[in-house]
């Protein structure tokens, strides 16, 4: 191989989705993550079968994952997902059609997800703020390592588990010898993802 290992990272840039206490259970029950209509291109460009997908419950400030796309992102996989008062869509004035005639979801850009093994959770440290969307490789490595050191999230066990020998290419985990120490955690994550 002519390329150095540094040029081809073992971990792809991840993608962070958001949920609240009101929508977390539905994400898990439906094995589905969603974004607003204007994010369609961004989600389709970023989310591949090998992309680590993370879910931040901003109500509890807990990150869950990793998850993996079971199929490419699409509009309105479940046209009625997350409808109702749980999403505060009325407060934000989002009443525009989401793409399908009878779709009522505020998050029509949807990704069917699966898990490989147990889902893990990690509470965000005080002062660390993440934005939904594509993560850098450094942020992804740090978050995956934090999840590995975090606890098993039994509340996410209802997410469909990938079949053995299924999707290839994304199973590479985070190297176990991480240079990030718990005290240094949040440095790369904070760069580029911190909300000003």
Mean pLDDT across all residues, rounded?
79
**What is the count of DSSP helices, taking H or I runs of 4+ residues?**
4
What Rg, in angstroms, do the CA atoms define? 17 Å
Shape: globular
Q: How many DSSP E strands?
A: 9
Largest sheet: 9 strands, mixed
Helical content (DSSP H or I, runs of 4+): 10-25%
Distance between the termini: 42 Å
Structural class based on helices, strands and sheet pairing:
alpha+beta
Which regions have little confidence, pLDDT < 50, spanning 5+ residues?
1-8, 89-99, 166-185, 190-196
Order of SSEs: EHEHEEEEEEHEH
Name the beta content range: 15-25%
What do you see in this structure?
It is built from four helices and nine strands, in the order βαβαββββββαβα. It has 196 residues and is an alpha+beta fold. Strand 3 and strand 4 (62-69) form a beta hairpin. The model is unreliable at 1-8, 89-99, 166-185 and 190-196 (pLDDT under 50).
Fill in the keyword field for this structure:
196 residues; alpha+beta; nine-stranded mixed sheet; globular; disordered N terminus
Map the helices and strands:
Layout: E1 15-19, H1 21-30, E2 32-35, H2 40-46, E3 53-57, E4 62-69, E5 74-75, E6 109-114, E7 120-123, E8 133-134, H3 137-149, E9 151-152, H4 187-190
Parallel strand pairs: 1-3
Antiparallel strand pairs: 1-8, 2-6, 3-4, 4-6, 4-7, 5-6, 7-9
């Amino acid at each position: 191989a002519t390329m150095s290992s540094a040029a081809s990272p073992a971990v792809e840039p991840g993608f962070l989705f958001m949920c609240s206490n009101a929508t977390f259970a539905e994400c898990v029950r439906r094995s589905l993550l969603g974004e607003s209509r204007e994010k369609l291109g961004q989600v389709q460009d970023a989310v591949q079968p090998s992309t680590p997908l993370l879910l931040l419950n901003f109500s509890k400030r807990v990150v869950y994952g990793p998850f993996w796309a079971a199929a490419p992102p699409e509009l309105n996989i479940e046209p009625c997902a997350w409808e109702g008062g749980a999403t505060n869509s009325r407060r934000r004035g989002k009443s525009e059609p989401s793409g399908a005639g009878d779709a009522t979801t505020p998050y029509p850009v949807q990704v069917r997800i699966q898990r490989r093994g147990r889902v893990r959770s990690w509470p965000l440290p005080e002062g660390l703020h993440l934005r939904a969307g594509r993560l850098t490789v450094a942020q992804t490595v740090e978050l995956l390592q934090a999840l590995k050191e975090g606890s098993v999230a039994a509340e996410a066990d209802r997410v469909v588990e990938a079949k053995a020998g299924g999707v290839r290419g994304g199973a590479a985990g985070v190297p176990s010898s991480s240079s990030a120490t718990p005290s240094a955690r949040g440095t790369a994550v904070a760069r580029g993802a911190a909300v000003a």
